[in-house]
Specification:
The structure is a single chain. The protein has 509 residues and is mostly helical. 83% of the residues lie in helices and 0% in strands.
Length: 509
Amino acid sequence: MDKSFLKSNSIIAAMTFLSRILGLVRDYFIARYFGANGLTDAFLIAFRIPNFFRRLFGEGAFSQAFVPILAEAKTNNTQAEVQNIINHIGTKFLFVLILITLITVVIAPVIIFMFAWGFYFSPDPMQFNLASDMLRITLPYLLFISLTAFSGAILNTYDQFAVPAFTPVLLNISMILSAIYLSKHMDTPIMALAWGVFFGGITQLLFQIPFLIKIKKLPKLALGDHQAIKTLKKRMLPALFGVSVSQINLLIDTMIASVLVSGSVSWLYYSDRLLELPLALIGIALATVSLAKLSQHFADKNDEKFAQTINNTLTIGLLLGLPACAGLVLLAEPLIITLFQYDQFDAFAVFQSSSSLMAYGSGLMAFIFVKILAPIFLSRGDAKTPVKVGVIAMISNVFLNVILGFYFAHVGLAIATSISALLNASLLYYYLNKQSIFNVSSNLYQTFFKALVASFIMTVFILIFGSEVELYLKADVSSRITLLGTTIVLAIIIYFASLKLLNIGIKKQ
């Protein structure tokens, strides 16, 4: 296996792991200080809306469309022209973001109505008004973090993966400090979290500037038009759906959850946050590295390395994703109890959050494969196929949400999202095969079945020794962490030992 691929992915995984762990610490303080209730639901809506658009305009569609353009320019043009492309795209992106931010701040209540109409029709207008006020504070985060994602895409193209992967740590630190200290000085304590988001966005953007200066690629204002902007528009508009369908589906979950009982938005949020940990470490890390590598190989017309990169990415995704999927489902309740059941977060919230976590966790492999497969098309300049697949998956998710949400409430929404992700991943592979871009090899099939066997052995261990909920309920904080940590470490050892016995691993080629 390509050493540079493994090294790049390991760097991103390590930095992402640090960020996600701090993200869980952040959520621990949110749960402990504010619980899972109507006030928390209001903040989570105000945070999720700019976060959703960030994933579309930032690390989602924009980055996926921009990186291949920059990689091609880097290969075929002078450094002066590369800088010119960065300047023009960066300037246009800045102006669009400023316009969107100004408009959305003014019409914040309308946006809350669109994305959480249940708040508007609630007998108590407090939740709707609070969400609108907090959204006005969090919306500028979209401007700051999208520019941060633009900077990160430049750094990734020049193999500077560590800095963009580390940057989210700063948002988590800002929100943690706001929850602990700033909340004590606010008339409405939970408003401190909105300000934590605002200052976190500024900090993230400022952090990346010195590294752009170091590689001499700091964007400068450049008025006028450029062919690269037209190419970006052509690729980005359809990619808004194709790359970010899972995020759109999660937002639809939130919209429908707003009309369910109070706390539903929070229960989905906490379970989604735990889903995001393995998804980021495996799916997003692999997608980030593979997009840069695939774009470079396609620009170089190196078909052998292009196919090898896909094979390497899927192999790592399988070997790491299957045990993570089993772990999320089997340890859902112990995870929620250990991380969140303190002070304002009660046993009822634990049960509801762990139920939706099991539903999300069962679809983890599908989420990972969507992250891996969509960039293959985008690296080749094909944004139409992912969008076609994405629209089908999104429409199916809406119908499933209505049906399953009616019968199973917030858990049904999580089930619907997992099913639509499976449909998305299946169709993406179908078109890869149909267009003769990639076909699963016999070696990859063997890897899958052996990883499945190793995951089954690990599952038996967890069921017998590690999933007794009563032990966690009776334990204090340190004992819970020790018990959960021991179970996870032993499960990992058993899984990789089983892989070793089955003669499977990540081999160098």
